Amino acid sequence: MTARRIDGWTGRVLLGAAVLLSGYPPVRLSAQDSQFGIRGLGTPGRFETVRARSTGGAFGPFDPMSPLAEASLADLPQLTATAMGGTSYRDAEAAGATTSLRASRFPVMGLAGPVFGRLVLGGGFTTYLDRTWDVTLRDSLLLRGTMQPYSDELTSDGGVADLRLAAALRVGSRFALGVALHVLSGSTRETAARIFDDTAYHAIKQSDEVRYDGVGVSGSALLDLLPGLRLAAFARSDNRLRARLGDVVTTQTDLPNTVGGGLRWAPSPSVRLAGALTRRTWATAGAGAFNTVSWSAGLEVGSGFSPLRLGARGGQLPFGAGATAPTEVGVAAGTGRAFARGRALVDVGLEHLERKGGGLSERVWTFLLGLTVRP
Q: Torsion angle, CA of 193/199/201/203, rounded to 10 degrees?
């Protein structure tokens, strides 16, 4: 006798998986980014170019092409385009087993330049949430008086992008302001499958495409306190992430507010140091979500076309299975090279992260490559 499909089984499988994932590690992990994004909305992206990530994120508030603080766009003297890609090699530990994973992403692309006097406009996209994962859960079911073991495989492929339109204005020689409108858009292909060990029972599989939308606004300011000493402040508010299956809104989740700041000191033309601190109210997303605070510190040495960059970062992750937020620490290094009299720049970086929480851990190496063009 074969098992028959029952209306609504996918919903029950997904609900049961959510309960299991909230307390226990999955049996198998594959083809995904961080395992700490499975239990929540996903893995948050970083609003940083290769230059900023190579300094641990410390130069993010001061980097004009990093989509973090719009006021830094005021420093752009000409039209500039940038894009970056990254490949991550991840060792994820769960349930006493270690799985090696690999993923490639293109998380940042932007275009900006002066338009009228001191007004600079910019636009582009970055990754807001990555929702790519593959989880297998083992269980059994009583059928005709016999316990039949089976595997439930749940997969999600896709994410949410942040489309940004920004403007910055240098009010004076020491002060700049910036604002931006953010449109969140994306989709995931989600699949639920049940496969019985006994091949006399048919496997059941169902796939659906879930679409996401949301909006946000942000603002920032730069202030030169002293020659060589710059202060940055930024804030952002995102309203909610709405998930649609067809034309039906299935879930609506509150998104965080973000506040942060940074300080950059240039004691000489060839040495620059920076630090940044950011807080995000992810706890508004519901059960299993935590507010996060992250810090970063970095150094850039060299006034020529090949600078050396070093940095470190740390803080919490927003989603986890334990009573406290998972943590991460990391170090990074990188350099760059200018070509065509500075009109083309290639940046490379290497980042190492360690994440722990709720009985899970992972180590990640990410190779970063960025290209910036100034026509």
A: 20
Helix (H, G, I), strand (E, B), or coil: what is residue 50?
Answer: helix
CATH code at 55?
2.40.160.60
Q: Is residue 349 part of a domain?
A: yes
Task: Note the pTM of the prediction, 2 decimals.
Answer: 0.86
Domain that holds residue 279: 9-373
What DSSP letter does each residue of 142-206 carry, written as one string? EETTEEEEEEEEEEEEEEEEEEEEEEEEE-SSSEEEEEEEEEEEEEEEEEEEEEESSTTSPPEEE
Our count of domains for the chain comes to 1
Give 1's DSSP letter. Answer: -
Token pair 């900023």 in the structure block, residue:
52
Q: 1 lies in a domain?
A: no
Give me the phi and psi of 50, to 5 degrees please. Answer: -60, -40
Any residues with CB less than 8 A from the CB of 27 and at least 6 apart, and which? Answer: 95, 136, 137, 138
- Per residue of the chain (375 residues), what is the pLDDT tens digit? 333 333 343 344 333 333 333 333 444 444 467 888 888 899 999 999 999 999 999 999 999 999 999 999 999 999 999 999 999 999 988 777 888 888 888 999 999 999 988 999 999 999 999 999 888 888 898 888 889 899 998 899 999 999 999 999 999 889 999 999 999 999 999 999 999 988 888 888 889 999 999 999 999 999 999 999 999 999 999 999 999 998 899 999 999 999 999 999 999 989 999 999 999 999 999 888 999 999 999 999 987 678 999 999 999 999 987 788 999 999 999 999 988 888 899 999 999 999 998 888 999 999 999 999 998
| Residue where the block lists tokens 């334990």 | 322
Flag whether 2 is in a domain. Answer: no
CA-CA distances (angstroms) from residue 227 to 174, 178, 224?
A: 9, 21, 7
